[in-house]
Fold this sequence. Notes:
Blueprint lengths: L13 E9 L1 H12 L8 E3 L25 E8 L4 H15 L9 E6 H7 L7 E3 L3 E4 L12 E4 L12 H13 L5 E5 L5 H8 L4 E6 L2 H13 L6 E5 L33 E7 L2 H14 E13 L3 H10 L2 E9 L2 E8 L2
Parallel strand pairs: 6-7, 8-9, 8-11, 9-10, 11-12
Antiparallel strand pairs: 1-3, 1-4, 2-3, 5-6, 12-14, 13-14
Helix pairs in contact: 1-2, 7-8
Amino acid sequence: MDTIGTPEHARPDAWLELSVAVDQEAAEAVAELLAQYGYQGGVAMEATPHPDACGDEPGMPYPLERDPTYPVTLRTYLPLDAHAEEQRQRIEQALWHLGQMRPIGAVQTQIIAEQDWAHAWKQFYSVQRMGTRTLVVPSWLTYTPAPDEVVLHLDPGMAFGTGLHPTTQLCITLLERYTHAGMRVLDLGTGSAILAIAAAKYGAGAVLALDNDTLAIQAAHANIVHNGVQVQVQAALGSLGAGVRLRHWQGGNVPADQLVQPHATRVPPPYDLVVANIVADILIVLAPDLADVLAPEGVLITSGIVQQRSDEVAIAFAAANLHLREYHSAGEWVALVHGHRF
């Protein structure tokens, strides 16, 4: 079988494009996998034309929230060198495992010439609407917002938090509603810092963006500066309470003594608003710690929870004397809003 990327096929003037179709709920997990191999972590997400999109604003992508089952295509690029074939096989193997949980299409490949690759993936990424007034705009596109719109400048490939996943969209919708001027905010498990940046642009006075993954914090720092909110937002490699003993959900393990706690940052607790878009297991463990850092009248927004686990999270929060105010869902994903019980 003829394979790509072997020494006799290596081409210093070419790149290998890998693309795969996935449903929206799998998109973020697959994007993070591709970013581990793609050049400079670059991953493009394409919301393909939808048959019902004919009446939408020209130049805008189909609003995916209308149809959460509608697929998207992810693309990444590898240098066509002696390692490309091995990397392709590793990607396919990892995608096979993910495919046991969510529908994932076959990996498609094509060779892109050197002069074309750097711009090839940009054509597949456009302005993305979230919530009622928030837009995610990549750096190479120009968009003039309406007076009531908020623009987040984020490029694909920035780790963990592209905005496409339903839980991110749920959190953005709730942050739009609950963020008020001057608030102190904690974004726990910040990823790309999309939620921290959004909170700052909605008017929060001080925001702490914590994550226990070094790649995520690197991306968060870059995004915070790019969005001009470094005065309001501090990104730090850290965790909350019992979280210092927990591994990052993707693997890897930063030693506990290298993780800062919120009280050691320039945005210490208490927080008027806490948002944690993580996973149910971690939220259950951290329930008492989340309650401890939440101000008496504060609001706690949590997501990353599949419907089957939402009762477990709610029970853990109730044991921490937190009262369930709201329950929201998108497909199989859930977001919860809690406050202190009085």
